[in-house]
User: Fold Integrase family protein from Desulfocurvibacter africanus PCS.
Amino acid sequence: MSLAYRAMCAILERDGKPVPSEISCRRFLRRYAAEHQDIVVLRRQGEKALKDKVGPFILRQDKILKVGDVIFADGHDLNFEVLHPETGKPHRPTLVMWMDWRSRMPIGWEIMPTESAVAIASALRMAIANLGKYPRVPYIDNGKAFKAKYFTKSESELRELDGLYARLGMTVQFSRPYEARTKIIERFFRTFDEQCQRLLPSYCGNNIEHKPAWRRRNEAYHQARKSDWIPTIREAAEIVRLYVGWYARQPHRGLGGQTPAEVFMAGRGAGVDTAELDRHFLWTRKVRPSRCGFTLAGMRYESDCLYGLNKDILVKYSWADLSQVHLFELDNTPIGQAAPTEAIHPLARHFGDELDLLKVQEANKRQRQLKQQTMNLARELDVSVQDSGLSELPWMRREKQSLRSVPKPKAKAEPAGLTPERRAELEALGKALQAAPTDIRPAYSAPEYFASTIDRYDFLFDVSVKQGLALAPDDAAWMANFEASDEFRDIAGDSYAKLRAIYQSRTEEALS
Assistant:
């Protein structure tokens, strides 16, 4: 004020005006500040201070609410250091907490290196499980993590793609930016800092003013007496759990002397279905499978139920357990499950052990079975042109030719010069050829090479069963031996038995 008075005196003396005493100016300023506090606060501290310190506030009657009607959520950087789970270095993680408004009871929380949708979802699931029912209105922060599409997206043709809040039937209320007074959970964070965080050896404060003495320069006395213990994420979560349990048993002035636990237990729900709750909190992603698999979170997932699919599907998964994911059609029809694939030894036969060889055998067996499945389905779809009805199409009709009588060919004249001796010799040679055993060739031509035993069997099955031709003795013996083997029974025994029955029924119908 003295500096302002001297500046005023210089201006008045320059303009030739009388200069009042400093005491008179001080009395005027005190009177003006008392009568125009809004102007003083606005000019000195800004609009936010004007709204927080001078403007009227709205009283909210929370006694008319029930437990679970409104729950608050916010993220808070802890004021003590915790070892980072990946780097092992001290850092300040984020505490995401949900609190019931009516009872002032913290009901769900999660600690993670940064505020993210994963931490918020985990804390919300814990809150609903502890609440015993689904809350009606979540009053949440306006940060981007709380506004993630996973929570808020509700304009979709598919309910399973809707935001989590919409799926749970909750109406979201976002707090205004930079207005902590709208969130009662901010008061809990201050209480938590005063009653718990300041007592920890790794307390660092949230600004320079609250920095502990051992973190300042030349504080050898405090630095020598400071403990080097820094909690891990798990230990920090246990600290929060113990404090919440103690806080819930303390009388609360805003509850008329009752404890948060007493009010909360009086209005707690009967419980929720944990299976349904888990389904709501599964993450959903749309993928298009290729060659029985897809990539999720940097891992390759495969499933036999994806064989032959070339369309978009939904994958539902939990970050807490990626050992198995659930597959659905876009209309939410279940397809099956998929698991991460495991790479096999490139030269298991030469350098691998028995387990490596077994993995290779299982992989080859799986490929053969899937291929055989397609081959069998393709054969079942095979029909002749007459059976398919294509012969009735205009461009495939054939005009019938009228039968004409063909004259009987005249007997050829015997060649001249054939002596009776030569004729007798040829007749004797013909009789000898008829009497000699002949090497009967089969009525089919087999390839010289087959890629596998199942390919050879498939060819012989087509010739003998479908075409009805007789097999050569060697082929018939090989086919009988292969049908008696374990390999045939494991791979395609049932499929070929069904095909044999189908072809036999068709043959019987044709004969009848």
Summary: The chain has a mean pLDDT of 79. Residues 259 and 268 are 14 Å apart (CA to CA).
